Amino acid sequence: MSILESKYKAVRTMTRSLAANLSAEDQMVQSCPEASPVKWHQAHTTWFFETFILRPFLPGYRPFRDEFHRLFNSYYISLGEKISAKKLRAAFSRPTLNEILAFRAHVDQEMERLFSCSIDQEVARRILLGLNHEQQHQELGLTDIKHAFFSNPIGPSYGSAPMPKERTHPAYQLRWFDFEGGLTGIGYPLNAGDPLDFCFDNETPRHKVYLEPFQIASCMVTCRDYLEFMSDDGYIRPELWLSDGWDSVQQAGWEAPLYWERDSTDATGWRVFTLKGWHGLAGLLDTALCHVSFFEADAFARWRGCRLPTEAEWESAAIKERRHGNLLDTGRLHPTRANGAGLEQLFGDCWEWTASPHTGYPGYKPLPGALGEYNGKFMSSQMIVRGGSCVTPADHIRATYRNFIHPAMRWQFTGIRLAI
Amino acid sequence: MSILESKYKAVRTMTRSLAANLSAEDQMVQSCPEASPVKWHQAHTTWFFETFILRPFLPGYRPFRDEFHRLFNSYYISLGEKISAKKLRAAFSRPTLNEILAFRAHVDQEMERLFSCSIDQEVARRILLGLNHEQQHQELGLTDIKHAFFSNPIGPSYGSAPMPKERTHPAYQLRWFDFEGGLTGIGYPLNAGDPLDFCFDNETPRHKVYLEPFQIASCMVTCRDYLEFMSDDGYIRPELWLSDGWDSVQQAGWEAPLYWERDSTDATGWRVFTLKGWHGLAGLLDTALCHVSFFEADAFARWRGCRLPTEAEWESAAIKERRHGNLLDTGRLHPTRANGAGLEQLFGDCWEWTASPHTGYPGYKPLPGALGEYNGKFMSSQMIVRGGSCVTPADHIRATYRNFIHPAMRWQFTGIRLAI
Amino acid sequence: MSILESKYKAVRTMTRSLAANLSAEDQMVQSCPEASPVKWHQAHTTWFFETFILRPFLPGYRPFRDEFHRLFNSYYISLGEKISAKKLRAAFSRPTLNEILAFRAHVDQEMERLFSCSIDQEVARRILLGLNHEQQHQELGLTDIKHAFFSNPIGPSYGSAPMPKERTHPAYQLRWFDFEGGLTGIGYPLNAGDPLDFCFDNETPRHKVYLEPFQIASCMVTCRDYLEFMSDDGYIRPELWLSDGWDSVQQAGWEAPLYWERDSTDATGWRVFTLKGWHGLAGLLDTALCHVSFFEADAFARWRGCRLPTEAEWESAAIKERRHGNLLDTGRLHPTRANGAGLEQLFGDCWEWTASPHTGYPGYKPLPGALGEYNGKFMSSQMIVRGGSCVTPADHIRATYRNFIHPAMRWQFTGIRLAI
Amino acid sequence: MSILESKYKAVRTMTRSLAANLSAEDQMVQSCPEASPVKWHQAHTTWFFETFILRPFLPGYRPFRDEFHRLFNSYYISLGEKISAKKLRAAFSRPTLNEILAFRAHVDQEMERLFSCSIDQEVARRILLGLNHEQQHQELGLTDIKHAFFSNPIGPSYGSAPMPKERTHPAYQLRWFDFEGGLTGIGYPLNAGDPLDFCFDNETPRHKVYLEPFQIASCMVTCRDYLEFMSDDGYIRPELWLSDGWDSVQQAGWEAPLYWERDSTDATGWRVFTLKGWHGLAGLLDTALCHVSFFEADAFARWRGCRLPTEAEWESAAIKERRHGNLLDTGRLHPTRANGAGLEQLFGDCWEWTASPHTGYPGYKPLPGALGEYNGKFMSSQMIVRGGSCVTPADHIRATYRNFIHPAMRWQFTGIRLAI
């Protein structure tokens, strides 16, 4: 079996296994406009392989069901009719989960047939893209089910494994790491030789940027740090906020991160919803703060007399670090604490808000055709986040990876690293 | 077994049987704000018996699960916390359908225990109310699942029985029935002797009204009639509409009844969604028009040079007629056609919009306590509809029955009878 | 000069005199969607005479300016293009006030020419309608400018006359007046002989209604009464409210009547905005409560164990009373107190909410053509108010007069009379 | 008289003179949420001098009227209570225009007294800021009154001077200017010696950026160019648009630039609203396109196979050019055409959308205190525009000037220059 085929099997199996804890009913929930039902994630990722690989490249391929082409399109406007599909995720009792699983099996079987043929470079490139796409939806599926369970009045937990106890160890001290700046390169250097070599189009072209000297924090902001900000009236002092941020605070009534709820039985007065149910905040004080918007990250940094790093600063700091951390593969599914060892938590725990809006790198060109609708058309009003989170697959993230989120969004696993 | 217990069993069994065609996923869908998931209907009707009968009246009753008390409250504000339950119907994957069915079984078993004791008048009255409440939710469940299936891009059908072919018989002629008016009584005359005697509080007190002479149509307006209105630019002539109605037309973009969609393959240019899937309008032209708002009913009547009857006129015309028609028990689940025999279609087919807003009869008093929140608090901005529809249980309707609906709503089975 | 011409001059002069206190800038303000600028009221009432009388009936009439025909239409859809005019009231700096005043002068001059000819019955009827229309806009102008001044941060007052001191006299006692009900007639009996005889179409036809015996309060609910309701948690007890009313309370955050503001310097803790500026509530406690919605009136009545009268009850009680009271002509421009003398305050002070929705009387027919758009198309979702207010011209009101307002509106001078 | 005092007088006089064409009523209009009434602009700019200069620095200064401090604050949250002021611009009939003009006179007189004293550096700095602030509001006032007159159904024109005829001369050819990129400096180099030296805080610090080689167009995109885009279905091809841009097109129903309206009497089928009234597009085909959003600019560039320049590219191209063009001082008040002479139209005509979001330069620090709320808090979700427009005062613009606008806004004078 080729490396690519192994990877295909591993990713596809992972998706099913992540959904295994969830009933057909759970997989139908869409609890906020930015989320999608898990059943839809399972179908849409399969649709990608059918649409972009099997239909055009596998001779004799017969689509599983004709209407699925239209149903499971998400945003590829070039392919037409996305609107209806988007609207109807909420009324999405049919096709049933069983039909979706049959669709997955059909496509997997046909992909096996495809792998048995010789695969040209374009097909291989598309398969890699399809797998990275599916990994993104693995993360989104967990992100969305967290919101769904939070919205449910019973507050169910995902999976039965209990939340691991946080280690207690000598307190660490936040340290500042110095970087001297200067002319440096950022962006992904494509490596033609490696069959699994991959990056998204928005990570290219690699190019030069000039950086002033800067300092970056050794670890992420903790819940304890953030409680201080809250106690210091962080949410009611307009001078700490960007204008749009202050509007969000007023309109949405923010007074704490998403998933925090007042709880008089906890020493801190708060409890936190996790994928493993509700937990008192007292037991999580030193873990990385999560589920804050860019606006909150920015206000916190200003309050601290610091700022958020730019994405170029972040990347030039991270590029030399080992790509490991509290990612999906640890199974924690919640941010953990730093341990005081160097420049840490760059990968995993939480996506880190940067001060950089999502724009194209100099000379940026999207992929041709419908596949080009992946990143380029989201280059306005979104902010770059870096480093992956505790629900990002470990082999999906890298130092050059550019994820982007609207600045008022909080349902993704997003946190803060400071810079000066 | 007492008459009351038999009725209890029959009604409860009917609910389960109506839901039997639907998957757990189907029973979760809420496709518009005015609808509820079928799973919720099953739970809420059971909650009624637990809350108002078993908890207060059955010694030793143990609630099935504590949080259900809060979860399945719909609008009884006196019982507290309705808001959260209402909001969360959409994220309602847990409790699962299986848990709801176990809840139903638990309550049925305990009700059996209650029936084995002697039942006083107050308990009997509440059981009757609970059964009539459950019958209302049987109708709502079918109404809501119709909208859910319509909203689903695949357009599934409820049940597998095909739509019965409409009879062809000599054309009938709409006739006008004369009533001389004068001082007459309306409202329900309670009959203390009958153990199944029941009406809702808004049907009382029986009282006198003075009516001018009037005429009422022998049958309901048909799809054919309504197509004429549409062809005569009914939807674009503001002078035909109430001011609020015209606003609705503009804002919602109405150009046909709900569930009509353009279809160039049908001779009429339209197809109609039914509980048995899509049907060409050509085959339904002489059936009673359905799924129009009060505003459309009113505009149609004005266009015809007629008007809608008041509820007092309707009731005084219907009171002497036999209570039968195309109700839920026929299994058609769609309005049918008149056959030219007298004053017909008063019961079943479609609820008939009247010109009367929902107000309290002179001397009206709601039931005491939470049960009093049933009708009285909806006495503003709603219009009275009369006569039941093809999804109303046959033993649930009567001539004095006052149902009420917001004038812009179309998802219920509502149609038109003209008066002069 | 004919009686009609005298009346014409009196009404037209009154409009100008009511606007005389207001600058061109004041006359441009539209501070809520239901209000209109005073400049627009001045133009629209003039447009009525030009459109419905001078253009069709005065030979050789030359319209003042062509575009005014379209600009100053309010809602006569049959005349086309109302939308744009409505939208643009806010950007309405041109035509300037001076141009509007010239328009008024032009129309008055041409009307004088018309009066010098012989006037047939249809023209006379239209003139009377135009004058009653203008009197309605006199009331609306004062109602709207009150809201405009309230919205202005400086809180200017209309006119310079101070608020008259309320009389102090022996406390009166609310009494109940008994009516025996039975078959009675309501509606306006047109009197063909009288040249100034007038009613609106919705007051006809006169017809019979059957009334149960009822009791009606001798005077209106006072601010003191309403403070008690507020102190007894009236605004936070859902069981007191209609369902739509409770929604309004929640959404709009009502906690007092419109124009009440907390004021720690007043003994009651409140101050009230009037057309003569801010006044402490302490000095107004025994005056009639004003600026409450139907929902508040209904909740108050329920809290008191009473109800609102129906419009038929109100009319049959008022028909024998003398038509006088605290109307516009007293110049108070604010409700005053009862003095304990019989059934009082029926006319003036505040419009009195009834329990009756606005519907057509049996056999009701609107006027033909565009003039028929006056009342008939507002026969849904509005409640009848009766009796006029302190800003209603004295010769404009009568016992059969049916005004109608959306049940959540509070910017008009609306108050409460109880019934049992 | 000092240079600073001369400048003060010149700027303040200009404001009054720009408003001289407008009636008190015109100066009250606020026709869209992003606009403000001209009367308010006159008051707010005066408030700036009172608040930041006279109150703190002129001994014995007596504020004109106490409540003006609160009324004419726009967004300086640190000074409190901005909300009410913002909301009430619409009900803003009082203070009257005459009172505002008296306020201006009072402040000017007191400023004269201040100038007669010795002025320290901080005061001088604040005066310069106040004057630049007032110049920004001169531009905004004209921008807002254009929208107000456009919204008025009569479509008045500002001033009486006719639109100058566009020169006809040999057609010019768009040319591309090459820049080699590399490491370069951008941002304003403060010049301590010059008393009128000024820049906004967001233009600093001057810093290095690395640019790839690029090409920039010799002139702006014309109306003729844009008509081609429209004819080629530019507004209905989603693949040309950013995702947020496409949403704007759908929601707002854009099918042409703001101020274009269909007009079958013009050869192009369109007419254009200008500060001098309506003009057929045919006569303006070669003038610079104006009143497009960033989204339209971006879509147009993509359609042309080009892109928008970054702000660093724009600045490095403009820094060597002479600062002149069709600015406010020409009196045209509308964009004109290029004449084929080199790299032109950089200054004036229209603000040029860049591909750069508004962020802080490396090391950026806002001014301390309330004055720091000027630019820094708008550093999210806005795009940089460069070069000024035909309503920007000539001595207000410079190559380093960074203006910023929400990407969907069109009411400012914004156009397009292409880059490759």
From TrEMBL, chains A, B, C, D:
It comes from Tunturiibacter gelidiferens. NCBIfam families: egtB_TIGR03440 (TIGR03440). Residues 198-319, 334-419 form the Sulfatase-modifying factor enzyme-like domain. One of its GO terms (biological process) is ergothioneine biosynthetic process. Keywords: Iron, Oxidoreductase. Residues 8-127 form the DinB-like domain. Pathway: Amino-acid biosynthesis; ergothioneine biosynthesis. InterPro entries: CTDL_fold, DinB-like, EgtB, Sulfatase_Mod_Factor_Kinase, SUMF_dom, SUMF_sf. It comes from the Bacteria. This is Ergothioneine biosynthesis protein EgtB.
